[in-house]
Amino acid sequence: MKIVLDTNCLLRILPKNAEYRCLWDKFLIGKFTLCYTNEVLQEYEEVLSRFYSPKISELAVGTLIKSDNSIQITPDFKWNLITADPDDNKFVDCALNAGVDYLVTNDKHFNILKKIDFPQIKVVDIETFRQIIMHNFTYNQ
Question: Sign of the C-alpha dihedral, residues 81, 87, 89, 91?
């Protein structure tokens, strides 16, 4: 299963005692593939440094880059589907170019994608994604 993870969700899966830490742990053991672009990676680095520390940012991004179940995507086309916050389009472009199963976000700006017939992107919040992963992990060990 391939996903794009919005930064607001990455922040919620990294801390050891985080409610959604199980998702980072599942990523580390290869239960899903995380797709990213250079733009997404830059945002991860910037936001993680600001919220946690430059060292945490370096470790998390380094882990992501070196992981066998992460894929760097170079978008061929920019769709510009989110007008309310155009900066969010980097995640959409990554998702579309990678052909992901899910774009995981808690950002309401992505709700517009649920109303667009083409191109289709399945947008889920972090809780829904956790349920998908836990169900998948339970039945497909």
Answer: negative
Burial of 123 (0-12, 13-18, 19+ CB in 10 A): buried
Which structure tokens are listed for 140?
A: 């497909």
The amino acid that residue 133 corresponds to is I
Residue 119 preceded by cis peptide, ω within 30: yes
pLDDT by 10s per residue, the chain, length 141 = 999 999 999 999 999 999 999 999 999 999 999 999 999 999 999 999 999 999 999 999 999 999 999 999 998 877 776 777 788 889 999 999 999 999 999 988 777 777 777 778 899 999 999 999 988 755 444
- Return the amino acid letter for 104: V
- The answer to whether the predicted template modeling score (pTM) of the entire model surpasses 0.85 is yes
Q: Give the distance from CA 7 to its chain's centroid.
A: 7
Within the chain, where are the H helices? 7-13, 21-28, 38-51, 54-66, 89-98, 126-139
